[in-house]
Structure formats: structure tokens, C-alpha cells
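Notebook B, p. 112. Complex prediction, attempt 2.
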Amino acid sequence: MARIGIPIDGLPDETLLAGLGTGDAEIAVAFVRRFQRTVFGVAVAVLGDQRLAEDVAQCTFERAWRHAQVYDSRRGSVRTWLTTIAHNLAIDVVRARKPTPVDPTELTDMLGVIRETPERRAMANEDSAELRAELALLPREQARAVVLAGIYGMTAKQIAELEGIPLGTAKTRIRTAMEKLRVRLSVKRAHHE
Amino acid sequence: MRELAPELALDVLTGYERAAAQAHLGVCPQCREYVSSLTQIGDRMLTLVPGVEPPVGFEDRVLTRMGLTSPPVHTPRRRWWPMALVAAAAAAVLFGLGGWVVGGMATTHGTPVAAPGNHQVLRFAQLRNSSQRQVGQVFTYEGSPAWVWMSVTTSDPKIGTVWCELQKQDGAFLPIGQFQLTGGEGSWGVQLKVDPSTVVGARLTSDQGTVLATASFDPVYPPSTQGPK
């Protein structure tokens, strides 16, 4: 068999994850380097604390290494899988730590970052740009609600308290926003297909 | 259920509501699908969060946590992996297989790390039936640990247990295990106790010993070459 190859840092995400399971240190380094910004970014966004975020990020990679064999490419990309692990861990920490997980200023910053701007849209991959654009089309209060729930892991009750609105209104905002995103993204996908 | 689905998908329901929603999902495929579509949106939302560079030394601390040590730095140093490894991942996706890494290896603490400069090779061969139709693929990996992984897609949904044997250079067949096909399809892998470079082929047999498929690996060439001209 010819040994024609590609550099280790050029391997696809799925291949690198598979290699991570072999216990090869070089592959592990390549894997961590590829995803550390993303994983740490999610952890620090949710926790707002660098030290705790590093613990969560380390734990995320450890879990990926232990559970590489259960990754299922049909359920999403490696990046999405990792961010979900990091997010779940961070939310667990935050729920054990403080009753109101987000500073309103942080939320405003986050909303500004994840909603569409021409520059960011150009930089983002197509998949992200699509969702970013749809988030930007939502009324601001719905976008806030869905980001508070989806990124900061806040319950409707916590959102209601933070925003000073009735619980039912908070639930409606989350539900309406998610349904709009689902329908619009489904329509776009169907259109592409 | 439609009212609770978005919060369930974002994992922000509390106690009783979550239990009630999950109980319903257990008996309602339509709602399961609906919640799944919403969950995907929640997952994708996380990819919009801006990346942040972790503190210096982060990757070393992660490796320590995995029981690994950082590989020594050589300059310039780029390890190259065979295209077959890329093909393996592609095959896993093509066959719709989740978790194609060999089970059991991923959880091994303190797995020996290959010495720098080792040429770890992942080899690939097609599994063909008696009509020479491709029914699967076999990969062997010469790293540490060494492993073999295969995927099989036959047109016979009645085939259940299949036995895998590797053929060594002396022609002898070495049984390495068995696995189950479902609807004629399946995948399986195992750590190897033999040197993969001495393996020249593989075959799958049925419970009754009938040969279902065979595969032949190309010879291993020295690392400095790109195979025969």
C-alpha cells in the first residue's frame, strides 16, 4: 500500500477524534489545539470565570477521549458534539454555584456577538451564518430569551425574574423564538435540497 | 407537549415538567422527532459563541489528565497519516456508523505512546464476496495499540453472526473474534495481539464456516517509498 498521506493537522475532525481514541499523544495534541478555543470559549461564556472554565474545558477533552467511540457523526459534527459536552458541564457547574447565572451586561455583549454583522457573517462558516442571520431576525426580546436559555442554561422562571416579566411571557418568548428558528431553518434546508 | 418541547430541547425544564415530557416522548415518535429538531438548533447555537484562547499550558494539562505526556518537539516535525485513515472516517460516515473507533481502546489509561519517528500505518483492504462484489472494508492500524476495524454491508439480511480471521504471511488464518450483522450490516473492531504488518489478508465466515468474504492487503512498503512504480 502506498504511504501517501496528509499531515496530522490536516486530518478531518472525525478522523482526529478516532485517532484520539488510540491514545496517541501527538493526535491528542492536534485534537486539543484544533478545538481548545471553541471549548474554552463556551465554558468561559457560560461561567464567566477563567479558572472554572479551564476545569470544564479540561474535563470536556477528557470526556471526548474516554467516549470517542460513542461519537455518532449522524447526530452532528465533532465541534458541535464537543461544545455540547462543554456546555452541559458548564451549566452543571453554574447551577450548583449561583442562582442567577448571567450578568445582564454579559448578555448584551453576547447578543451583540452572536447576532449578525456583515463582518462576522463573512467570517463564519455557512452553517453558523445561517443561524446567526435567523437569530438577528428575531425580535430582540425573543432573541434574549432564547440565548439566556440556550447558552446560559437559564430556566423560564429565571428569565422571568431577570427580565421582570411574567413566567408565561418568558415561556412564550422561548417557544416562539425556537419555533421560528426551526421553521425558517427547515425551509432553508428544504430549499437547498 | 409542543409547549414544553423548546425548553426540553434546551434542557431548561425543571423536575416535574421534564419527567412528564420525557414520559410522553417515550411513547410518541412525532414529538421525539420534533424535540430532536429543536435540540439541533440549541446545539448549533453554541457554535456561535466566540472562541477564546485558553491559558498557556492548557494542552499539557489536558494531556496529563488523559494520562499522556506531550510528545517531544522536533523542528520541523510533521507526522503524516495515510490517506486510508481519511478513507476510514469517510467510510464510517458513508456507512452511517457512529462510534467507529474500536471500543475499549478509548478508555485505556496510560496507553503506551508510539515512539517519535514510528511510522504508524493504517492499511485498508476491500472485503469481497465470491462474486468479487465489494461487501465491506477492513482497516488495520499499526500504532500502539494496534487494532483492526471493519464494516460489512451485505445484501443478505439473514446473516447474523460472522467470524473474522486474519491471514498471516505463512498463509495461516488466525481467528480474532465474532460480531453480529443486523439487516446484513455491521461494523466491529478489536485490539490486535499480532503485528498488523504481518497480516496479508482477512476473511469473514458464517456460523457454519462458509466463507462470506475475503480481503487482501497490499504489501507494506518502506516508509521512504510511495509504493511500486
